## 1
Amino acid sequence: MILEVKSVHVELNGVRILRGVSLSVGRGEIVMLIGRNGAGKTTTIKSIMGLVPVKSGRIVFDGRDITGMKTHKIARMGIGYAPEDRRVFADLTVEENIEIAIGNPSERDEILREVYTIFPDLKRLASRRSGYLSGGEQKMLAIARALALKPKLLLLDEPFEGLAPLVVRRLYESIWKIREKGISILIAESNITHVPKLADRVYVIERGEIVFEGSPEETLKSERVLKILRGY
Amino acid sequence: MMWMLRFILDGFFYASILFLISSGLTLIFSVAGIINLAHGCLYMLGAYIAATLIKSLIDTPYAILAFPVAAFIVGLLGLFIERFIIRWIYGRDLVYQLLLTFGLALILSDITRIVFGTEPIYVTKLYINTGVIDILGSFYPVYNFIVIIVSLIIGCLIWIILYKTRIGMMIRACALDREMSEAIGLNTGNVFSLTFLMGAILAGISGALVVPQSAAMLGIDADALVESFIVIVIGGVGSIKGAFIGSLLIGLIRSFGIVFFPEIELAIAYLVMIVVLLVRPRGLFGREFRVA
């Protein structure tokens, strides 16, 4: 296992957001964390990145306990994070956004080449200020930036939200290419339709607890899962 | 026309000093989200350290070392203040920052008074020694030219560091989004320290540069702070370009104001600020900003 989250509890402003979330991601695996808005997907991802304080529980990455570690150290250990709201550095160019995440400047050219083969559209936009990109292009850039870290694990929070169907298909292809490189991926999604295209394994989260774990087929067939996602 | 040129040059001289102080202030604010009310004191300390050194070295060519040494010492002090004091209040309410940095300002001015005494230190000899040059029949101090050129060079250096180096890229990223910068592996704590170091060096060097032309004395910290606030509000908070244009404007207003309307010289600066804010509430080059 590249990542193991073991009964993590997170409390924000006295509200219990995560109540003992446990999940794992195997090497080279794409795992999807499905849940409705507010179920705790983003908080789970942020707790792995060290962006929210973990009250109890442990997070183990690549055999090392990273609970409570500083965010920049977690990132440097090999976890790339593309947040839901993209958060590209709007004043920096596309290339600068990617470059800034590169840990070792001597690998710059090689990493840029690799990132551009996964996201060919970004090469054309390299010198454009990222604030001027479309929403879809910014989503790609956020993932490209995370890739520049040379991660072993990618955390993608709602990568398909608000994208046109054509762009979604392009993003599938990019994600497949990333998996071919042996990078494990954890995707948080509220929409179950992407499961058959991408997932090796699925977790369903509801009210801060993992309520289901299974293969894509099991997930899509499960009445219980559909009921949870519908909300009735 | 000659007198006109003289006022313009004087305006450029004031503008140079103001630009150095205010670019440090605006840099720290845009990156760390801290309104550093102790910035004026760093400027004053730079003036005192430089004045003391110049005084003892005045007859040797080493007097010129007073400027980099003063900037370096003040820079280290800025670094120390960030690491051990300001670090604890990032992201807290604005009131904490204002109280803390105001308290720091009081402490620093008291320390300055205890260390350097209450008497102003004059090193006008250096100013006189650098001589005058003849511009179209009128004499103008060479020292003022040196200051204008030095601050232009420093301005270019800041631009190169911010826009042409990897460090500058990190500084700009941190200014835009600290959390995301952390999440892509940047040690933002170090970037903040570096920013304070740079800001304090700028305050220190401007204090040092002003000394031969005027004096190191208590109270110059408040004037410097107030004027650089006017500058960055006019130019747009967080913008180095804004600090440059704002300084030019205030520098020229000051040099002409002193002659034509000495009673309301400072009032005019405020008036310009009010007009700018009415027309462009974020200043000339300002953009939306968040407090980190």
Note: Chain B has a mean pLDDT of 93.
## 2
Amino acid sequence: MKKLSARRRHPLAALVVLIFALAATGGLYTALAPADEAKAAKGSGSSLAIKEGKKLYAVGCASCHGTGGQGSSDGPSLVGVGAAAVDFQVGTGRMPAQKPEAQAPKKPVKYDQAEIDQLAAYVASLGPGPNVPNKSQYDPNESDAAAGGELFRTNCAQCHNFTGEGGALSKGKFAPDLGDVSKKHIYEAMQTGPQSMPSYPDSVITEKGKGDIIAYLETVNSEESDSPGGYGLGGFGPVSEGLFAWVFGLGVMVAVAVWVAARTAKAKKS
Amino acid sequence: MSSETGSHDNVPDDEKLPRAHEGHGETATRGEDPFANPGLPPHENRVQDVDERAAKRSERTVALFFTVSMLATVGFIASYVAFPIDKIIHVWPLGDISALNFSLGLTLGLALFCIGAGAVHWARTLMSDVEIADDRHPIEAEPEVRAKVMEDFRQGAKESQLGRRKLVRNTMFGAMALVPLSGVVLLRDLGPLPKDKLRHTLWAKGKLLVNENTDEPLRPEDITMGSLAFARPEGLDPHSEDYNTEIAKAALMLVRIEPDDIKDKQSLDWSYQGVLAYSKICTHVGCPVSLYEQQTHHVLCPCHQSTFDLADGAKVLFGPAGHPLPQLKISVNKDGYLEAQGDFAEPVGPSFWERG
């Protein structure tokens, strides 16, 4: 304790205290925050899916989207968004939303797939909308990654970056990284246009085109794809690369210049 | 390069040392002036200055750096000869890379680095490090030197007969005045002037809007609420020579907004059942703007964050853009396809002087 007390006026003492305080606050929050498992009774029969889904909806969704899916000031109308939108939003954990913010981020999924299917069946019954895609749509046997790359650069790269790393939008919104998104969810996102993202119905990008885009993303983000430049710094382009070059590149140069001109070891005073 | 010379150079340093001491002591005793120049601090010798064996060691280290550099240069030439251009090797942690590129970069980098490192080590350990103060001198030359220069100039002018031979002088001035004209004439290659190219695109009345993704003409029902589509004018072949020149002006983005939500009256009139066609080229410096946020109907430019409100005539909400995005007036033809009602009413892309 005495040792610690002796160092309390060290220039780095404030920094160390700050780091401890931050770690303690974060740890306490993680330990004590309520884990709101909004789970409802599991449904069984697929014929009852809509009915079961309505019950789940009343518990988990109605407070923002309205009792009949008509929407409120806190959430948009779900009439006509289709089963695919529910499968994407709930299946990636974006819904139910934790709090009102610029954009509902991806988080641990609160429902199991059977419950998601029931919710989707109920929301699909509110109005016609895109269905959940099947495997032959989002993972076709034959796909053209090169054509997909062309489509990706025309339609997607402006927000999601050239290989899907994502990027910033206005006022706290952002386009997420696509590297770890499942093929089904990528397909559903293109079909339904979640949150800020515009939708790309089959009349704009064909079913085959969507499969090609998924094949392109898989090709460029897979383990086998080479990264000849080494560590990609997140792949965001000029912001992270410029920061690295200015801080580390120039920092090292300044340090070397200081060292070169510094006093060398002196002979012991005789 | 021998250390004898090095240590010999250091001998006067040792002689200077007491002088620096004296200077220091002198100012310190003048106690009445608190702002007196304290002079240089006393010089301290390095190990290499007093120990000949340490100096020898430093010399050998410097020589080692320079020798490694020589070997690396030889290695560079050897790699150039030895490795075929298409040989790929695996190098941890870089992965699969060209053997030629890797070895050339490594050896040349090492050769240059060792020259620098040797020079730095030489300067830090062997070269004199005695602190010296150098007084400033007046920039002006001595009066005698200036008088001599003026005299030389006058004599040169007289001997060259420049003042007497008027014909020579005048033709020389003429020749020298005309030479820059050739440079002025070459400025013509900056042209020809764009004339009205900046004001017109390929869009014209009756041209169909072709989907960039499917190459099919678009129908209004293809553009659903919240979707985003890109279109080019009918007849523009993506493989033609002038495609890039033309699409750079004609690129079009299509969105559908609930007609009740469209605030700008003219924008509503130029849309078709809520389908709006805007130029995709930012009015700031011409980047493609297409970061469309479908909930707010804002579109963001990735270059300088100019933000346009597509529900309000693409009015600029934020950023350096000076004009709204030009809107293309569209309608449907008798077959139900979207068609342009003419060209853009104003020039697309960045502003220019004569834009008005």
Note: The two ends of chain B are 71 Å apart (CA to CA).
